[in-house]
Amino acid sequence: MSDTRTFLLTAALLFLSTPAVAQGGHGMDHGGMNMSQMPAMDLSGMKKLQGKAFDRAFMSAMIPHHQAAVDMARAVLPVSKDANVKAWATAVIKDQNREINLMTAWLKANGGTDAAMAKMMAGSMQGMASMVKSSKTPDIAFVQGMVPHHASAVEMASLALQKGSHATVLKLARDIVKAQAQEMYDYRLWLLKRGQ
After folding, report:
1. What integer is the mean pLDDT of 130-155?
2. Angle between helices 138-163 and 83-109 (to 10 degrees)
3. Least crowded by CB within 10 Å, which of 39, 133, 181, 196?
4. What does the pLDDT look like over 36-57, one tens digit per residue?
5. Is it the case that residue 61 has pLDDT exceeding 60?
6. Given this model, what pLDDT does residue 188 score?
7. Of 117, 113, 134, residue with least CA distance to 125
């Protein structure tokens, strides 16, 4: 197994097993609502798929998932008082919009959106930006929200690395795991310094 593949799989397993991720983010204060109140992602339908059907489901689900991160970043950017959070939010908007455009174009060329998967994911992502907007500490709310959000992206992308059949899907999945595992690490260090 290559060093890169070992790193990616280890990072995915490590972050998915952290208490905040495994417990749905219990204890996170987002102005009266915490991540444990968010509907859990149901990937059972995606896990049953193979080949092109899996690829379409993954891309279709990842678009609203990415959009939720963009919406959270746009919510925190105007009110952030932290240089790191501003930089992270700006990067989320840039990187995830670029990937949304890639996924949208790929779906147009490969059978179109899996509407059921897109709807399921959009429902799971509702309310994330409003948690940042309603928090008394929006910087902390954003970073706390992004940890489990990225963890769920890593979970889906890890599944795609196992079941994907198109080179574009596999590359995107690898890029998501690599980038978002590093970002989760940075977020956790930032939170630890603030006693979170």
Report:
1. 94
2. 30
3. 39
4. 344 456 778 888 999 999 999 9
5. yes
6. 96
7. 117
Give CB contacts under 8 A, 24+ apart, made by 14-22: 15/150, 15/151, 15/154, 15/181, 15/184, 16/151, 16/154, 16/155, 16/158, 18/151, 18/188, 20/147, 20/148, 21/147, 21/148, 21/151
Please give the Cα distance from 122 to 104 (Å, whole number).
15
Q: What is the band of 13 on the pLDDT scale with cuts at 50, 70, 90?
A: very low
**Residues 69, 163: Cα–Cα separation, whole Å:** 24
Give the position of tokens 């963890």.
151
Helix, strand, coil shares, percent, the chain, to 5:
75, 0, 25
1 C-beta neighbours (distance < 10 Å), count: 6
List the Cα angle 83/147/175 in 5-degree steps. Answer: 90
pTM passes above 0.70: yes
24 and 148 Cβ atoms separated by less than 8 Å: yes
CB of 56 within 8 A of CB of 113? yes
